[in-house]
Design goal:
Elements (H helix, E strand, L loop, with lengths): L11 H26 L2 H27 L12 H31 L6 H22 L7 H30 L4 H28 L9 H9 L6 E11 L2 E9 L5 H19 L3 E7 L30
Parallel strand pairs: 2-3
Antiparallel strand pairs: 1-2
């Protein structure tokens, strides 16, 4: 297994901190404005901003934890701390969405009067800040689930602010106060969809499912065509975190010198990195047919006093 160093993009922590500061200002503004204008849509957006702040704070913590080096107790490091944080974050968004839906239903039955002008002004200010934060995190979101969850929070809130603005304009023109709870439902749907994406991605990592972008059958077919490789089996592909993939397998080769086996291994690792974005691999080289040579072998606990199933096979 080859060790690889990983680093987070420079300045991500600082960006998250400034995002927290900016979002906190908008939260205070929308809370006061929502109360003064009697707008549920604005208060709903304030609730969404609160989840943004939590997401940014948790993302910052997750990034810091992922930078901690592996230890004898945590040999994979702390990358999955960020995954757990993202899942907690997604669940919190579902709770916020549920509260918004309930309040929207209550107001739909008897729409209260809303100060649409104040609602509109504050929503425009919130939109500007959310667009700024989302754009600031856009580049880093591709490589980290925590940054991605924070980005979707900010982008979802920007869309929600646009909904509040549209609602404020419609209320000003028509006087239809029922638009306010309708916009709130729109906001709730946006944040619930974002939460589902984050939750689904995080659960796949915890369940050690194969990464979505990796076709395991195609990968094995490519490896089997490499010079010196007779068969690849007992394959396991998983993610340590959404951006960090790993793979282990048994590789059947001819009975060759260790130096030649090393060249075969290096070629396999190169293909895994270049074609399948797998940077961590554990390859067991074998020159005899394995007793368990299925493509995907079942994992079984090792009982005390029993011999490992592969102990008699030669390894290079």
């Amino acid at each position: 297994m080859t060790l690889h160093e990983h680093s987070h993009p420079l300045g991500v922590g600082s960006k998250l901190k400034y995002g927290i500061i900016f979002s906190s200002g908008i939260l205070a503004l929308e809370l006061v404005g929502g109360i003064l204008s009697n707008s549920l849509a604005l208060l709903s957006d304030a609730g969404h901003v609160l989840t943004d702040i939590v997401a940014l704070a948790l993302s910052w913590y997750g990034v810091r934890q992922a930078e901690r080096p592996p230890t004898h107790r945590m040999t994979f490091g702390y990358h999955r701390v960020g995954v757990l944080i993202a899942i907690i974050n997604a669940i919190s968004i579902f709770l916020i969405a549920g509260i918004v839906f309930y309040e929207a239903y209550r107001r739909w039955q008897q729409p209260p009067e809303v100060n649409s002008l104040l609602m509109l002004v504050i929503a425009v200010a919130g939109l500007g800040v959310n667009i700024f934060v989302a754009a600031w995190l856009s580049k880093e979101r591709r490589g980290n689930i925590n940054i991605r969850s924070a980005f979707w929070h900010a982008l979802g809130d920007a869309l929600a602010s646009m909904g509040v603005i549209a609602g404020g304009i419609i209320i000003m023109i028509t006087g239809w106060y029922v638009v306010d709870p309708l916009v709130s439902v729109f906001i709730g749907i946006i944040i619930a969809l974002a939460a589902w994406r984050i939750l689904r991605e995080g659960l796949k990592v915890l369940l050690e499912a194969s990464p979505a972008g990796i076709d395991v059958n195609r990968m094995v077919s490519v490896l089997n065509r490499l010079p010196g490789v007779k068969d690849v089996h007992d394959v396991h592909v998983w993610s340590i975190s959404p951006e960090l993939h790993a793979m282990s397998c048994h590789v059947l080769i001819d009975d060759i010198a260790t130096s030649q086996a090393a060249l075969v291994r290096e070629k396999i690792e190169q293909v895994l990195r270049d074609e399948f974005q797998i940077g961590h691999s554990a390859l067991q080289m074998e020159c005899q047919v394995c007793s368990e040579n299925d493509l995907f072998c079942s994992l079984k606990p090792c009982e005390p006093g029993t011999a490992p199933p592969h102990e008699n096979h030669e390894k290079h």
